[in-house]
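Running this now, will post back.
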Amino acid sequence: MSYIGTVSHGVVVLPAGAKLDEGSQVRVEPLKKRGRKPPAASSLGEMLLRFAGKAKGLPVDMARNHDHYLHGLPKK
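Update: finished.
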């Protein structure tokens, strides 16, 4: 038997008619909400700034010549 409840003010509320014996151990796991989107940044640039400075050991001209390093095209 399993029930799906919701959290209201920090308390799990089970559907009407759900019966559990007093003292029963339960497991509570959050379910993924369908169609839930990650919090939106105010702009694409702000979202991408989270990754700024993360890559280490890249060539100094990586931004200018990324097609060369990724696909073998001639350098600019």
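The mean pLDDT is 86. More later if anyone needs it.
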